[in-house]
Amino acid sequence: MKSDRKIIKKRPSWDRYFMDIAMVVASRSNCLRRHVAALIVKDGRIISTGYNGTPRGIRNCCDGGCKRCSSDAAPGTKLSECLCSHGEENAIVQAAYHGISVKDSTIYTTFSPCLICSKMIINAGIREVVFQDRYALDDTARKILREAKVKIRTVKPN
Predict the structure, then answer these.
(1) How far apart are CA 112 and CA 108, in angstroms?
(2) Which of 31, 35, 73, 157 keeps 20 to 30 A from 79, CA to CA?
(3) Is 88 a catalytic residue?
């Protein structure tokens, strides 16, 4: 005999939903050091995704494409030698590649953006950044995002 009882499952918030998708996108990263991803959302729908790794046509980081990532360089050092593009950068560039405007959108990123990605976010017209974990080198990035009136929010990990 079947029960008439309904099982009510709590649905995730929109922020949690989009961040969970960003975490899945991060699993595509080929970077040896850290898996990071970004998801751009406009009007409640995903318009672009990106994860960190070497540029299109360049040998993957995990296959030796980025010498810095396969070296013993200390975290936060020799960043100018890294060939990997960031998740935020790739999400913005993918949208541009396909002719999709990101103006007035929200970017969900697994880590708070670095300074370079923050400048791209501002210049692309993205109005809000939602992140899960804080990147250690983001003080100036957060400052310019605030100055440019880009809203910054944190979503707590599951």
Answers:
(1) 9
(2) 157
(3) yes
Give the other-Cβ count within 10 Å of 22's Cβ: 28
Q: Give the SS3 label for residue 156.
A: coil
Element (H, E) at 37: strand 37-42
Q: Choosing from 81, 88, 128, 147, which is the catalytic residue?
A: 88
Indicate if the alpha-carbon torsion angle 30, 33, 35, 40 is positive or negative: negative
CB 69 within 8 A of CB 29: no
Q: What is the pTM of this model?
A: 0.89
Percentage with pLDDT > 70 across the chain: 96
**pLDDT of 3 over the 90 cut:** no
Q: How high is the mean pLDDT of the chain?
A: 91
Beta strands 128-133; 106-111: pairing state: parallel
